[in-house]
Amino acid sequence: MGPHVRRRARRAARAALAALALATATGCSERKEHAVALPPPPPRGAEGAACHYLPCEEGLECTPGSKMCARPDHPELEAARAQARAREAEVLARSGVTTPTSAEAPAAPDGPGAPGAVRVVRVSNDAVHPTVFAACRADERLVGGGCRLLTPGLTTVLDSFPSHHGETDTLGARWNCGRVPPDRWELEAFALCQRVIAAPP
């Protein structure tokens, strides 16, 4: 190959590289022109913001599924509340309680059981829910309770505490159990419920 042929080949190669560079620059420019600008993310804690690790602003709640801050009427939150109400009614029924009670509720009319007798209420979560509670009736005073892990061969820390009681009494209160951290192991909550002794007429 002669010198003039090699020169023509080099000139052609340089021209091809220049054309390629021009086409690339033009394509990038066109892509930038057609690119859609994304809206900035909402401020931390605001409606629509992620709430995996940060709290939501006052008046907003973290949705259980999508983990974003939303108003209380968000469909996810309403569905979660409905599930919680159904679960509460189920556990109350298994505790022998027909309606939600608290220490502020008046005592129920006399029923089975002698005044002063202690009823032991045991309720299991059946390894379906991470928490469970055992509840006393409106005419029963919670005098004690506890938690037990029913899954054989396992040991863990259990969250164990009373709730739904007033400042001065535990009528209709509950004993709550849960695993730390939450998990679906089989737990049993038990409550010692003492029948209220009616005052003499």
Features:
single chain, 201 residues, alpha+beta, three-stranded antiparallel β-sheet, 2 helices, 26% helix, elongated
| Beta strand count | 8
Helix content: 25-40%
Mean pLDDT: 77
Taken from the alpha-carbon principal axes, the silhouette is elongated
Q: Which strand-content bin applies to the residues? A: 15-25%
List the strand order in the largest sheet.
Answer: 3-8-5
Report how far the terminal alpha carbons are from each other. 126 Å
Structural class: alpha+beta
Assembly category: single chain
**Uncertain segments:** 100-111
Number of helices: 2
Largest sheet: 3 strands, antiparallel
- Alpha carbon gyration radius: 33 Å
| SSE pattern, N- to C-terminal | HEEHEEEEEE
Please, could you describe this protein's structure?
- The chain is of the alpha+beta class and 201 residues long.
- It has a domain at 94-195.
- 26% of the residues lie in helices and 23% in strands.
- It has helices at 3-34, 75-94, and strands at 61-62, 69-70, 118-124, 131-135, 140-149, 158-163, 174-179, 187-195.
- A three-stranded antiparallel beta sheet has the order 3-8-5, with no helix packed on it. A three-stranded antiparallel beta sheet has the order 4-7-6. Strands 1-2 form a two-stranded antiparallel ribbon.
- The longest helix has 32 residues, at 3-34.
- Residues 100-111 have low confidence and may be disordered.
